TrEMBL record:
Keyword annotations of the record: Membrane, Transmembrane, Transmembrane helix
Full protein name: Pro-sigmaK processing inhibitor BofA
TM stretches of this protein: 6-23, 30-54, 66-87
Organism: Paenibacillus pseudetheri
InterPro entries: BofA
Keyword match Transmembrane: yes
Length: 88
């Protein structure tokens, strides 16, 4: 039952996202922009991890951290550094 509910939510969200993309005539240009942001987010986290400026901080490269930096930009990197220092 729960699996069918999850599949239903996935299908509905894909359909609604498709309607938004094609109704506003966004095309696929946003996809390349999102890809650039994704690569820059991973690069920013990589630089923090291996620059040696902050030795006690290591931010893991996973979808959650890269997604946060993709959405928030460089303030997202600072947020992750602050969370890492405070929580660990």
């Amino acid at each position: 039952m729960l699996r069918m509910l999850a599949i239903g939510v996935l299908v509905i969200s894909v359909v609604l996202l498709s309607v938004i993309v094609f109704r506003k005539k966004l095309g696929f240009g946003w996809l390349s922009l999102f890809g650039v942001h994704l690569v820059l987010a991973a690069l920013a986290i990589y630089v923090v991890n291996f620059s040696g400026l902050i030795t006690q901080v290591h931010i893991p490269l996973n979808p959650a951290t890269i997604g946060a930096v993709t959405v928030l930009g460089l303030p997202g990197v600072v947020m992750l550094i602050g969370l890492r220092i405070i929580l660990f």
